[in-house]
Amino acid sequence: MSENADSATATTGAIRNHVGEPLVVLTDVEKFFGELHVLQNINLTIGKGEVVVVIGPSGSGKSTLCRSINRLETIQSGTISIDGVPLPSEGNGLAKLRADVGMVFQSFNLFAHKTILDNVTLGPIKVRKLSNAEARKRGMELLTRVGVQDQAEKYPAQLSGGQQQRVAIARALAMNPKVILFDEPTSALDPEMVNEVLDVMVDLARQGMTMVVVTHEMGFARKAANRVVFMADGQIVEEADPDTFFTAPKSARAKDFLSKILTH
């Protein structure tokens, strides 16, 4: 398992953001896929400015947890709130709340028939009601921020995977979200492209963006997380700051997981 972020960022020391009042709150969340109990009694509070990295073996419920926060997955019971507002089940309220929750997927999900800049400006124009000129100015600022400003008039197929994922991050930022969810954002990338995406994410963490990151990149977790949440079999087994988790995990399940991934 990769520790790609180590080499790119180890020299600057770990980031530990100031954590503000609760922003994302999951209470007694339960989720089933048929008979499969994929989220079991999930209780998790994420503060403003906090970077929470969710790790665990495949099938542990990590991505389902992430996708439940903006209701891409529905839950059977429990509550999820964003900045004090319960997540609506549907309709305009859900669309409005989702606008405050950015999402970066494993696959880039860019519109193939639109230019890079158009991909970034579509949401702000349609949802935030920005003018074309405002959205394009902001879009170029964000493409510059993630280092792909020279690609603005190209189409997604003309970009590398790493460039496309950086565009996806710019697209999420364009909505001025309160929190960004990352669902294994580097797992579809060739190894040499991983660090360019992780570096952008580290910069976001340094700037105080609230982030929930499902990832296999242990180096990023060590570098940027305020807290590591370890999941297995649909449950949160353990959570701690990175230094504590990686050096002194408490549960046998976490010890076993780390012994397997940190020796490869």
What does this structure look like?
This protein is an alpha/beta fold. The strands form two sheets. Strands 6-7-8-3-9-10 form a six-stranded mixed sheet, with helices on both faces. Strands 2-1-4-5 form a four-stranded antiparallel sheet, with helices on one face. It contains ten helices and ten strands. Helix content is 37%, strand content 23%. Helix 4 packs parallel to helix 6, helix 5 packs across helix 6 and helix 6 packs parallel to helix 7. It starts with a helix and ends with a helix. The longest helix has 16 residues. Pfam families: ABC_tran (PF00005). Keywords: Amino-acid transport, ATP-binding, Cell membrane, Hydrolase, Membrane, Nucleotide-binding, Transport. It is a peripheral membrane protein. Belongs to the ABC transporter superfamily. InterPro entries: AAA+_ATPase, ABC_ATPase_HisP-typ, ABC_transporter-like_ATP-bd, ABC_transporter-like_CS, MetN_ABC_transporter-like, P-loop_NTPase.
Which features characterize this protein?
264 residues; alpha/beta; six-stranded mixed sheet; 23% strand; disordered N terminus
